[in-house]
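A protein record pairs a chain with a discrete description of its three-dimensional fold. The following entry can be read in just this way:
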Amino acid sequence: MLPLVLLAVLAAAAAQNESNPPRAPSPRREQFRVIYEWNAIDFEWDSPADREAYLNTSQYIPKNVLISGINFYGENLFVTMPRMLDGVPVTLATIPVQSSETAPKMRPFPSWSDNTVGNCSALQFVQNVEIDKNGIMWILDNGRVGTLTQKPDAKCPPSIVLIDLKTGKNEMERIPFPAETVNIKSTYLNDLVVDNRDGDYAYITDNSASDPGIIVFRRSDKKSWKLRDAQSMSSANDAMLFRINGTTVSLPVNIDGIALGPQYRVDGDKVDRKVYYCPLSSFHLYAINASVLRNENLAGKGEGALRPFVTDLGTKASQTDGMKMDSNGILFYGLIGNSTIAEWNTTIDFHIGQRTIARDTNYIQWVDRFTFDDKGNTYVIVNRLFNFVKNGVSENEVNYRILKSHTGSKSYVFAEDLAVSDPSGSTVPQSAAVVPTLGASVVMVALAHLLV
């Protein structure tokens, strides 16, 4: 009997390998190392007098400037500074990818005037940006400033702002969201992914305290809609408490991080993708098909319409803020309470496929966002957000870091495009996150029987 079982195991493994060829060996990994760090964020001012004037009028309060989002294009890293508190003169800026300085000053992007508070032609509150494969920057502008103050101020309508970086002109195209999609007083446009198919879509997390959901924006006709699922998009009671290096903070934050998986074929010629997301205050990771989110009719059916299409992939060791998918379906994310950077190969079951790739209680205190450059490097923002929200920022110590590691990765926006049918007639697996897992599970079960 034993030889027959072993033969079955080998046959299952062979079938799995035939339908799902193994990935190329991963390049040699480097440890994450600090490339930039700041006690407080400063800027490239037009003159020392301007800096002094901003300080004197409290338009610049150094300890109130937090870095959050990060993205790469050309020779620059784009960094966001959401205006959660007063005294943040710039909400989007650049720093060089390579610099001789360990704490480079931020250069306002597109310009100083394009970051003017109260000017609705300028950027007001940018939490995150994405840059697609065509060099278009997608900017989430909440329009509301002072979100951590007693009186948040909705200066301008929540909008998506587009800039074609290829031209070098940095002209902004602003598309305000309609009132039926977002509430100007409660929406919080947190993060986004861009799907360059069928007219370009963005899937956006809105972690509004009163109405969390995923906003879908279609660039071709500038139309948007919002989908909700309270069970998977709301904070969980057992995950609201964060413990980091001896500090405890309670944060009931809804849907936050979002990532977009590689394309895969369904029904022979159709193409779909998995959208992964999680509330900040949750231990679970969820997934839904992009094709479901694109169905704007579901948006009008209210709570419960999305529930049958949501998959609970399982739990993580701790809560996660930002996450990022690479072009091969590797998800990078932080585990906040563990001071850890982790990854998951989406071809492996989530329960067994998670892997720690960096841990340091001193240098990895609240992983926020990730980005990839064009040389295989991964960058991570670490910002000690728990300290910031408790008003515990001290300019006598390092508060913000950017870490870097050569992982051989490139962004999901450069993943293989399956929109055109394969001339040979062959197809790829039904789902990169499901089919390989099934084969691996068969082998594991058989091996378990052998060991027994």
Summary: The first strand starts at residue 33 and ends at 38. The longest helix spans residues 2-19.
